[in-house]
Design a protein that fits this description.
Length: 424
């Protein structure tokens, strides 16, 4: 005859309750993250990280949130322990590699990249050897780089090879410095292999890994930098034939406190860690850095009570337009584009079909613009899966065009200044 041990039954019941509670707690934390409630999600994951089971996986999300908050050292601590679940372990390695790269410890990052099967990236990172990547030389704490063009996107002249000036678009939607492969051939830049990159409309294209010994930005020189190779000369069509040889993206800009001063026709680069001069009328907005380079901020579309808050991707590379909407935004605003005329635009991965419309009111933080020229149809929905939360739209060029946009990677803030910075 079988008998039930009351003590064992209580232990089994307690274990079941603990598992159920941990599952519910993780679901709650994941929901907060998916809703873009980052501070609350961080608190929930912290509580969960002290529980067992469920605690180890929470550390991975805490590492992601630490990276988003500009805390790579904290992310390093949170990713020290391997994860039992395969999906969590892959995310741990991604976040750990990202943290180490932001700390410029490329040799260590190469080991993780290789373990993840990213051999081309590993070869690129190893190529720097004992050199200190992103080493900056500049006289003083501030340099200005005048725009070659302001519209339909800002273009600045960079110097490579010590003397050769090239035109590059400023695009916070780009990651590392991107150069045209023909230019790489001309200067004999190394090639370490390629990866598939994702661009507007979900289009994909091969992006090669390379490196550059130095690049000049006005009075600043940055030494030993990773670069990506992607055809860019075709972009010259939208600039009336001006030769475009590359894209200046967020990763290189993040080595400074960078201001895209549209009204002043210049890119202002300030040494990180220096005191920022405040400007009358500026709007300061919390900023997060998703994935490797996605500048994120919250805002609304429509009147303040209509729709939001949403999570926006601040991608300044949307030529002549201020907003690229995701489906959720259109649905909440009640905008119907069925039957509206569309056209084919150029994206980094190839042509994309978009439909123009006007967003009646759009905000980043408390800074608001009315009647913003907008597009629908090229939104990269795949970003949501990689981040664990949705991005609802892209705020771009025309939204900031009459002022200045500062990216402060120390304070993790966007500063929007109407009318620009003014004279120095």
């Amino acid at each position: 005859m079988l008998t039930r041990n009351p003590a064992c039954s209580r232990i089994a019941l307690f274990a079941t309750l603990c598992l159920s509670h941990a599952a519910n707690a993780r679901q709650s934390a994941d929901e907060l993250l998916s809703e873009g409630r980052f501070a609350e999600a961080r608190d929930a994951y912290r509580v969960l990280s002290r529980s067992d089971p469920g605690g180890a996986a929470a550390l991975v999300r805490l590492a992601q949130l630490a990276l988003m908050a500009g805390e790579p050292e904290r992310a390093m601590v949170l990713t020290e322990t391997p994860q039992p679940e395969a999906g969590d372990e892959q995310r741990r390695l991604v976040f750990r590699q990202r943290a180490i790269e932001r700390l410029h410890r490329f040799a260590e990052a190469a080991e993780i990249a290789e373990a993840r099967g990213r051999d081309a990236r590993a070869a690129q990172l190893r190529s720097f050897g004992e050199s200190e990547p992103y080493r900056i030389e500049m006289n003083g704490d501030r340099v200005e780089v005048p725009f070659v063009r302001t519209d339909p996107l800002p273009v600045v002249a960079l110097t490579i090879g010590g003397t050769r000036e090239i035109n590059c678009i400023i695009d916070t939607g780009g990651d590392e410095l991107i150069l045209d492969p023909e230019l790489a051939d001309e200067f004999g830049l190394p090639r370490f292999g390629s990866k598939e990159g994702m661009f507007a409309g979900g289009k994909r294209a091969q992006v090669e890994y390379s490196s550059l010994d130095r690049v000049g930005l006005g009075g600043a020189t940055v030494h030993d930098i990773p670069v990506s190779l992607l055809p860019s000369k075709g972009m010259g069509r939208i600039f009336g034939g001006l030769e475009i040889s590359g894209v200046l993206g967020t990763t290189l800009l993040s080595k400074f406190r960078a201001t895209i001063d549209y009204a002043g026709g210049r890119l202002v680069l300030e040494r990180r860690g220096t005191e920022r001069e405040r400007t009358d009328g500026e709007t300061v907005v919390p900023m997060w850095l998703g994935a490797s380079h996605l500048v994120l901020a919250k805002g609304n579309a429509g009147a303040p009570e209509d729709a939001g808050p949403f999570v926006w991707f601040i991608d300044t590379g949307l030529a002549a337009n201020g907003f690229l909407a995701g489906e959720t935004v259109l649905e909440r605003l009640g905008i119907d584009l069925e039957g509206k005329p569309s056209f084919q635009g150029a994206g980094g991965g190839g042509p994309v079909t978009v439909t123009p419309f006007v967003t009646p009111s759009l905000s980043v933080g408390s800074f608001r613009r009315e009647n913003v020229p907008s597009l629908f149809g090229a939104f990269p929905e795949e970003l949501d899966d990689a981040l664990g939360f949705p991005i609802h739209g892209i705020v771009s060029h025309a939204f900031f065009r009459t002022g200045a946009l500062t990216l402060d990677f120390d304070a993790m803030e966007l500063i929007i200044t109407p009318g620009g910075l003014g004279a120095e």
